[in-house]
Amino acid sequence: QLQLVESGGGLVQPGGSRRLSCEASGFTLDYYAIAWIRQAPGKERERVSCISISGGSTHYADPLKGRFTISRDNGKNTLYLQMNSLKPEDTAVYYCAADPQEGCSPPFRYQHWGQGTQVPVSS
Fold it and tell me: Tens of pLDDT along the chain (123 residues)?
């Protein structure tokens, strides 16, 4: 069974940090660019970040640049998202998704999705 499983979510206070992981099983991430996509309550899905297969190219939503860092470890078949200086507006369910292209250019064709991990940012 092909799966992406996110972990690392949970309640965090404003200004705090959280590191999310996305581990693939049943397939290798070596052939996919991977994105973190979030959906806040009552809001549309938003692509947070994307990383190319090689890890040499990354993209971030403009408001998140400087606070979020995406990385991958192909040897561990795992994607990460380091989130710093979290704000209440970052509250969302965070998903990882795999796109069979080298980079992070549209159109996007996400073939695999994780179940999501919830990140509430509040006091």
Answer: 889 999 999 999 999 999 999 999 999 999 999 999 999 999 999 999 999 999 999 999 998 989 999 999 999 999 999 999 999 999 999 999 999 999 999 999 999 999 999 999 999
Euclidean distance between CA atoms 98 and 109, whole angstroms:
8
Amino acid code (one letter) for 13: Q
Alpha-carbon distance of 14 to 34, in angstroms, equals 27
d(CA 10, CA 109): 28
Query: Cβ–Cβ contacts within 10 Å for residue 61, how many?
Result: 14
94 within 8 A of 21, measured Cβ to Cβ: no
Q: Collapsing DSSP states into helix, strand and coil, what is residue 38?
A: strand
Between CA 117 and CA 37 the distance in angstroms is 11
Burial-class residue 109 by CB neighbours within 10 Å (0-12, 13-18, 19+).
exposed
Q: In the chain, how long is the greatest CA-to-CA distance?
A: 40
14, burial (CB in 10 Å: exposed 0-12, middle 13-18, buried 19+): middle
